[in-house]
Amino acid sequence: MKVFAVAEHRFGELNPLSIELLNLANKLGESNAVVIGKDVGKFAAELAKYADKVWKIEDASLENYNPELYIDVLLQLFQNEKPDVVLIGNTAQGAEYAPYLAVKMNAPIVTDVVGVNSANGLVASRFVMQGKIMVDLRVKSMPCVLTIRQGAFKEGVEKNGQIVDAGIKPSKPAGRKFLEYVQPEAGEVDITKANVIVAVGRGIEDAANISLAEELANALGGVVAGSRPVIDNGWLPKDRQVGISGKVVKPKLYLALGISGAFQHVMGMKDSELIIAVNKDPEAPIFGVAHYGVVANLFDIVPELLDKLKGK
Amino acid sequence: MKIIVLAKHAPDPQSEVGVAADGKSLSLGTAVFDINDWDRYAVEEAIRIKEKMGGEVVVVGVGKSEDTLRKCLAMGADRAIKVPIESGLDAYQTAEVICEAIKNEKFDMIFAGLMSQDLNNSLVGVILAAMLNLPFATAVTSLEIGNGVVTVRREIEGGYQEAVQLPMPCLLTIQSGINEPRYVSVMGIKKAKTKELKEVNITPKSSTVEVAKMYLPPVKKAELITGDPSQIAAKIIAILKDRGLIG
After folding, report:
1. Pairwise CA distance, residues B122 & B37, whole Å
2. Predicted complex ipTM
3. How far is CA A206 from CA A70, A210, A212, A232, B117, in A?
4. Do A301 and B232 touch (CB under 8 A)?
5. Cα–Cα distance between B77 and A174 in angstroms, integer?
6. By the CB < 8 Å criterion, does A132 face chain B?
7. Would you call B117 and A130 a contact, using CB atoms and an 8 Å cutoff?
8. How far away is chain B from the Cα of A253, in angstroms, using its nearest Cα?
């Protein structure tokens, strides 16, 4: 199978997920990396260590990611090279342009893939129901586009691929214009520096209950953080968000209260030294990452913990 | 400003969900259905723009979407279109029927939620953009409408955002937290009853993926701490002491 993996970079850094795409590509067949930008020589050299061939697509207009221009140049390349499978990272960038590219290639697409089996056709595995259920999807035609979840294909082989300039430029200017990257606002508390984090999720139910978590955090010498629904509701400021789109934390203790454990959150806390999760739902994916789990209502457990900590 | 919003009636993944006996579909017997959470923010954003600038908000639902469409109308959308096909895992089919259902609508923008809370594909919105050749942006966290253009911020990794400008018409997928969606009022529910909810029958032609198997994921499970709340708390304290996390 002829596989094309589209690399990703931002702020002068290659996203390591690009190498994971190549790990999968090498399992499936002939691995081709594509890297798009203004000056991508450095990235191409790195990718060549894991690919049979690296295609550079360079143009001044490609300095910052623009989905229309990416799709434009990729379609030109794929028209000539006729890939069987196109792999793209399931990131804010990849998840954005991959479906559009798939439509223009007349290709089936499966997103956020964690497993691929090519023994009999191509079957891609992914989660549904926010991690609770898994589905194997068979694509009905080739080529197909897959967006790949970070961390799913960490093992791979080394190669010493050839780097070629694809000689492709965008065929027309994009309607969408890149303006700027906006930095996160610095908050009062840097949760990445805390030894103990008491993290709350949707199970905290109301802004008024945040004080209960704060009390527990104080008793443990820690800080309060939250998962996306808590931040969305404005119950905690954005700089307290743990997850891919927030902060990555590795405290000595991560106490997850009423957090279901969506992948986007788990990627922000899975490397904590000790994870204890309290959740009503015994099937909550958080119990897949926690060291200790309590299947209970957090409002039954936290007051008991506070009593015991204060009376110790 | 005329805005079309895609709204899905979806099961809450935090309710009890499982795999059906056929091993190829979801079992949703007791699951709680409501408007997909991301779509709630999308509908709210569209209604806010209409309230400020005038215009119309049209919501489109695929599948058993009547309750959700009525809810959108009660929030303040003007009319609704329902395509009563069974919307499955093939997002091409969903996008295709929406494309057909709105073919006579002139619009400035289409909003979709970033993803559906049940299938988490993040596909229908952008596939529709491609079918209609529209400029698009996903995971929008704020937007500002200018003269024939819309400037948006979209969420990327690590707390950063990307600011981009798009010409209209365009399609945006909306990230949760962009606004504070309103609750439906009794007045809103009354008004919604008089609003148009049109049903259109369209059979999708595309078929791009099929379910080979559906199953519970093999996961390593945490060691469970059991007992009554006081016993559980005591066991947690013991673990923390053992690890030197408390004195």
Report:
1. 13
2. 0.96
3. 43, 7, 11, 12, 21
4. yes
5. 32
6. yes
7. yes
8. 8
- Domains of chain A (ranges; CATH) run 2-165 (3.40.50.620), 191-310 (3.40.50.1220)
All domains in chain B, ordered by first residue: 2-199 (3.40.50.620)
Amino acid at site B153: R
B-chain residues near A281 (CB < 8 A): 14
Determine whether the interchain pair B137/A176 forms a contact, defined as Cβ–Cβ distance below 8 Å.
Answer: yes
Residues of chain A with pLDDT under 50: none
Cβ-Cβ contacts under 8 Å, B234 against chain A: 308
Contact at CB, A109 and B230, closer than 8 angstroms: no
Answer whether A201 touches B (CB < 8 Å).
Answer: no
Q: Which of A108, A111, A234 sits opposite B208 (nearest CB)?
A: A108
For B108-167, how does the pLDDT look when each residue is reduced to its tens digit (9 = 90+)?
Answer: 999 999 999 999 999 999 999 999 999 999 999 999 999 999 999 999 999 999 999 999
Sheet holding A30-37, edge to edge: A162-165, A53-58, A30-37, A2-6, A85-89, A144-148, A109-117, A123-128, A133-139, B209-215
